[in-house]
Amino acid sequence: MRNNSENVTTWRKNLKKRALRLFNNKCACCGYDSCAAALEFHHLEPEHKDFSISKVYSEPRSWSEIVKELEKCVLVCANCHREIHYGQRVVENKVYINYDYVDYKLYENDKYHKCFCGKIIHKKFNYCSTHCSSKNKRKIDWDKEKTNLLTLIDKDKKSYVTVSKLYNVSDKTIRKWYLKFSQ
After folding, report:
1. What predicted TM-score, i.e. pTM, was given to this entire model?
2. How far apart, in whole angstroms, are the C-alpha atoms of residue 72 and residue 94?
3. What residues does each domain of the chain span?
4. Where are the alpha helices (DSSP H) in the chain?
5. What confidence tens digit (pLDDT) does each residue in 12-47 have?
């Protein structure tokens, strides 16, 4: 079992990895990507700075707050950062974040996926709520699907489970309708 200091160290390392991933792990000016320790965050507009990214280690914040602050930044290597502050290099004032990696839980392990509505949920669940589940259920006019259902099961030899996945309903529902139609 890990102690608290190990948990804090792991959290700090993961935080830096997540933040770097948002910027594709390289300097926006020169493309440097050899050493993560040499990469720094530069605020494009210091007057709009709510907090320093380096202070997050001592004063933890939520990931959403950190992302909002990172949107005001650009990732640069230490050399380019010094050149920017001494006026030898100019960085465009634009958003540099790759938003594909904001939902870090999807990329750090295989325990999560996105629900029908877009929320991140554990893989053992199909939906985040019963409301979401009911919104995603297909309304099927079974009288129109009669021939297709009979063809899939009788001619194509598909199982009830396979057909149920095609219709996004339970295999019990398919069995019920099949028995009704085949009589």
Report:
1. 0.55
2. 8
3. 4-102, 142-182
4. 4-22, 63-70, 78-85, 105-108, 130-136, 142-150, 160-167, 171-182
5. 778 888 888 888 889 999 989 999 889 999 998 888
